[in-house]
Amino acid sequence: QVQLVESGGGLVQAGDSLRLSCAASARTFSFSSYAMGWFRQAPGKEREFVAAITSSGSSKNYADSVKGRFTISRDNAKNTVYLQMNSLKAEDTAVYYCNVFLNYTDRWGKGTLVTVSS
Q1: Cβ 85 vs Cβ 19: under 8 Å
Q2: Is 90 helix (H, G, I), strand (E, B) or coil?
Q3: Is there a contact between 56 and 101 (Cβ–Cβ < 8 Å)?
Q4: Which of 6, 46, 79, 89 is the most buried (most CB within 10 A)?
């Protein structure tokens, strides 16, 4: 079973920064072989794409709403993907989920809550 564990969420003020981490269990899949992504789900809304990174980290993609403020990165030696979030806004409030598409199925962590007060 794939294990993805997110951490780093919390309550911050608008304009602050947070760094989220997602640790993957090395026993469950070959982390360095897969692209990874971050998604988020705000209260009452559908889950939406935030950012993605290729297996090597050479290519990254962002939602327009976070472009220029968020940075995705990964450390394959640590089986961890990160999301650096700067200049946070109230509309960034959501549960943030780590994602990997493995064996034709989306796999998710349990998420970490980010709350941005204005």
Answers
A1: yes
A2: helix
A3: no
A4: 6
Q: Would you say 37 and 56 are in contact if contact means Cβ atoms under 8 Å apart?
A: no
Amino acid code (one letter) for 89: K
Which residues, in sequence order, are bridge partners of residue 106?
Answer: 101
Q: How far is CA 98 from the centre of its chain?
A: 5
pLDDT (0 to 100) of residue 27:
79
SS3 for 116? strand
SS3 58: coil
Of 20, 29, 21, give the one whose Cα is nearest residue 1.
29
Q: Are strands 112-117 and 10-13 parallel, antiparallel or unpaired?
A: parallel
Running along the chain, 118 residues long, what does each successive block of 10 average in pLDDT?
Answer: 93 98 88 96 97 97 98 97 98 97 92 97
Write down the pLDDT at residue 45.
97
pLDDT value of residue 103: 86
Cβ within 8 Å of residue 88, ≥6 positions away = 12, 13, 14, 15, 16, 17, 18, 69, 114, 116
